[in-house]
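Course assignment 3, question 2. Fill in each field.
Student: A.L.
Task: Predict the tertiary structure for the chain below.
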Amino acid sequence: MTTATLVKVVRDPRSGAAHMPNEQVAIMTVIRNLERTLYKVRWQAGGDCLVFPEDVEEIRPAWDSAGRPQLSVGSGGSGRCPQQILQKD
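Answer field:
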């Protein structure tokens, strides 16, 4: 699973919980809609939320056996992942 680190405080609108910088999140999907990119992330404590790409850093993709990132892209856009996710460390 692709993971990332929060860079600022993000409040989950559903639960009202505040998630602090340096919290590790799992990026479940990348959603592109109306020229915007959003990440659907899963919190360490459970639950999920949509966040903006500028809310996270240090994206670390999980790679499959063929060397491709294991990250699904949601509908509603160009169908391409942001370039920073596709770069292999």
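Instructor remarks: The helical segments are 83-86. The two ends are 15 Å apart (CA to CA).
Grade: pending
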